[in-house]
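Reopening this one. Same input as before:
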Amino acid sequence: MKDEEFGQRSSERPAQNTDTYIPGVCNIDRKGRWIRGAGAFAGLVFVVIYNEKWHLVFSHPVLYATGMVLLATGTALSLIQAMASFCVVDGLLGRTLISADHLTAPVRSPESRKKDTTRALLLIGGAFVVGFLFSAVLLISEINASR
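Same output, byte for byte:
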């Protein structure tokens, strides 16, 4: 489909999944997205294993839920970072992994650093909400299954 069918030219579209640093939007390259995507997949595997075998480690559902919140939040954060092309650690530390020599480079502009910090905190908050809700659903299903 052509871009004109949607009423937008490609120059008007917001840049996503690019290898160009855009303050508050994109601070990692393709390799960084792949690494975070692989981390999200590994996290999903750990979440499934933990959900099935938690009773071997913990004897109380509250401990299970706490562990699940941590695992699910980490998994959600990895997935969100991969999809958003944005590393929260680099955003909070004021650096970018997109440079000509593929090394971390500091972000010099205070306005850009503020945008990166705001985006990083937003992604962390979103990942926590997803992890918490996912864990709550699983905890409710575990409690119902034990009756």
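So the earlier flakiness isn't reproducible anymore. For the record, The first strand starts at residue 95 and ends at 96.
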